[in-house]
Amino acid sequence: MLTDIEIAQQAELLPIKKIAENLGIKEDELEYYGNYKAKLSEKLFVRVSNNPDGKLVLVTAINPTPAGEGKTTTTAGLGQAMAKIGKNAIIALREPSLGPVFGIKGGAAGGGYAQVLPMEDINLHFTGDMHAITSANNLCCAMLDNHIQQGNKLGIDPRRILIKRCLDMNDRALRNIVIGMGGKVNGVPREDHFIITVASEVMAILCLAADVSDLKERLGKILVAYDYSGKPVFAKDIKADGAMATLLKDAVKPNLVQTLEGTPAIMHGGPFANIAHGCNSVRATKLALKLADYCITEAGFGSDLGAEKFLDIKCRYADLKPSAIVVVATCRALKYNANISKDKCGEVNLEALKKGIVNLGVHIDNMRKYGVPVVVAINRFSTDSQEELEFIENYCTEKGADFALSDVFANGGEGGKALAEKVCQACEKEADFAPIYPLNIPLKEKVKAIATKIYGAKDVVFTTQAEKSIKELSELNIDKLPVCVAKTQYSLSDNPQLLGAPKDFTITVRNVTLSNGAGFVVVYTGDIMTMPGLPKVPAAEKIDVDNSGKISGLF
Known about the structure:
The protein is an alpha/beta fold. It is 34% helix and 20% strand. The protein is built from 20 helices and 25 strands. Strands 1, 2, 3, 4, 5, 6, 14, 15, 16, 17, 18 and 19 form a 12-stranded mixed beta sheet that branches. Helix 4 (71-84) crosses helix 18, helix 7 (129-149) packs across helix 8 and helix 7 packs antiparallel against helix 10. The two termini are 14 Å apart. The mean pLDDT is 95.
């Protein structure tokens, strides 16, 4: 059996010029990054701005498990399947972060015969967007420390600096550090912190900005610190916004690539959904809607995280209205939700499946609350028994949910034709999309709405630190903004050990921060970390390259 990277390396890619031609994109609207990658220029945005929008399809999933769900694989395979049934579709995805690639998860470009290519490039440096975001963020940090060193005209309090440096790599040793050591010439000593690039506000801003002008304005609004009198200091106050935008002038342009079967794919931006808002860029999604009849996009982790933020944050700012939502589930992951160990999830166990399938039920119900038709994609694994698959199908029937078996990992687009047909049918049904909470209610009520309506919590508790932060930020109109909850991806609760469909639990909010440029409030629950660490045996140990440049072990 071939590995994902071996399948990708044996594929014959079409020149990116051909992929663009199939979408009606002109050559002078492309900025080439080799033969198989290109950025899409502003000229294209202007030319297609009056085109009618296609149908928007969101792919989400049950809570992720080590047993695997295959959300990106399903997204890529669904795009390929659309072509098989004669539909004009394009997929819009996030860019992978190097943290998971070299950490525990591995690559994030799909798998088997439903991949986005060139897989090695996408999972590594791609077109440099992650590096540009990292540089822009850290330039702001450097300018802030330099301002303090060079006389501190704004009276910035070194004890109240909010912006953190970032790195697109899992490195727990950098979570809490001290900088400015070694004497006066090396700056003012203070405690500092690193977060992973995909959790930075600059990443969120890139993904929510409408254009370069909006990008620059949002960058200037980043709340970087407070002065000694308690007055907020923004990035524009230290005159960092122009230089930051300059570093992002190319990164703001979406990237065009292709699936294994030549379906066009736009990959742009990559915030995590457990510690950020988990969606690809607004620019990529809106452009895809102008270029095809169907835009198939995904949101990170389960529907309680990525989909909720897609629907309550991204759709608000971009005025998007999804036509259908696909919830991906697998036999293996549902059995894991019944507390079956990962190494046993491939074994036939109908009793465990019956116990764990409640997790799927919650996600179906949650997505219906947004007024959008839902289709369940049963992502088939080779270890699944017919009896288990039929049980999931019967469960979906009992819930009145449309469903289809998806076999795209093994058979590519051909294995997703039934799913594609169901999605197209769902897109023709009446949708009455509405966010789960209104913007004109207090912050705490928004958090409670998400916790009770989506997570199933009975209540929300705010720690003393969270209460203090809310009070401090109240003067900055935070009650007018949507909420981005940082929460474990493994459970509907804030406790990763509570699998399935937990009940009677309480969500604990331990801190609240403002992403002023992005335009949302970040609410931290549980023990969520904004700088992950590497596992005991990181994926990096298996990755290698030979003298010819051929990569192995990437996925």
